[in-house]
Design a protein that fits this description.
CATH architecture: Orthogonal Bundle
Number of helices: 4
Structural class: alpha+beta
Number of strands: 5
Strand content: 5-15%
Oligomer: single chain
Strand order of the largest sheet: 3-5-4
CATH superfamily: Winged helix-like DNA-binding domain superfamily/Winged helix DNA-binding domain
Shape: elongated
Length: 131
């Protein structure tokens, strides 16, 4: 069984596998704390509830960072080290901050829609149980 981004490939969407699409706003949120290396971003994503303690696919995180850079939402620079190879440091831009603000509005709207759906679903379950 192949595992990508901490989720079993082919798993039912009802198990939350599509939450990995939220990696973009999650990365932007992490970068608001200051410049970070890709491996640290990956490790911090593991701590977020959407990954449930499972490590996201590092290649996917770096692809996301590359796309964010191409869009102008992040920049990167090489940080030289005396004790190891140079590492890329990622920094959120003003464009990225605006993008994150848009994400937060969109996610709030999604949450409201999901809350309404959950309420309707609970009413349906309550009806079955009452029968």
């Amino acid at each position: 069984m192949t595992v990508t981004s901490g989720r079993k490939q082919g798993a039912c969407p009802c198990e939350g596998g599509t939450l990995e699409r939220l990696i973009r706003p999650a990365v932007l949120i992490l970068l608001t704390e200051g410049p970070q290396y890709g491996y640290r971003i990956t490790r911090r994503l593991t701590e977020m509830p959407m990954f449930a303690g499972e490590k996201p696919n590092a290649a996917g995180v770096y692809r996301c960072l590359k796309l964010l850079a191409q869009e102008g939402s992040v920049t990167s620079e090489w940080a030289l080290s005396e004790s190891g190879p140079a590492k890329r440091l990622y920094i959120i831009t003003p464009t990225g901050e605006q993008c994150l603000a848009s994400w937060l509005m969109t996610l709030t709207q999604y949450r409201e829609a999901v809350d309404a759906l959950l309420a309707l679903g609970q009413q349906a379950v309550d009806r079955w149980r009452a029968e």
